[in-house]
Amino acid sequence: MKPRPTWWKTLIAILITMVMLFPLYWMINISFTQRRSIRAADLYPKDFTLSNYSAMIHTQLPYLGTSLLIAFSVVIVTLIIALPASYALSFLNFAGSRSMNFILILAQMIPAVVMSLGFYQIFNDLGLLDSIPGLILADSTLSVPFAVILQTAFMQTMPKSLIEAAKIDGASNWRIFMEIVIPLSRNTIVTTSLFAFLWSWSDFMFASTLNAGGGKMRPITMGIYDFISANNEEWGPLMATAVMASVPTAVLLLVAQKYVAAGVTAGAIKD
Fold this sequence. Notes:
The chain contains eleven helices and no strands. It is mainly alpha-helical. Helix 2 (51-91) packs across helix 5 and helix 3 (97-109) crosses helix 5 (132-155).
């Protein structure tokens, strides 16, 4: 049988990809365009300039540094909590372990705006408002439940005989966790770390509610608003900042894509 032509499918895929990537291209285009020429809406930066990136470097670097600090801290906190919790849910029998995943799913369903209102009162009482530790703690509440669910799904697919053999050889739970479970969970660890980083890096709800008065210690999602006021919008520097803020996430996605592809499907099939 003669194979059917598939060129039209490729064409449709290219067109859809172009439509999806056009906002990114337009952001880059505006970032290299002089302010006086932005309203001309040229498809390429005819009035080319690097002044927008110069303005970004002089004003936004502290915010970028804060976002990096928060994002990496959230990743560390997420792994410290999620990995032992996942091991316990997968291999240790304790009261309430079966209902824990359902509770974690319910936690994922709570809107961030609802959580931010509750955090505001709690953080105000604890003195954590407008602070980096407060944002790290708040952002971790989004990533930890997801990480526990994903890690538990993967760990439950590990051969039980492997764990039992280690116990017969006299290995403690801690040794099994560190020398067997952690190395085998590399893909899901990278996946959960990446999602935790992305969620905290792009967070606006908690940042605007819990750290609005943080000054130069605000994350980039708040610092970018320095270019927007009631009577003026600096679109060039704003787009330049958006481009630079997209670089860390793009690099991480490119580097970790093979681990993410394996990690998000971990636990989908049980032996």
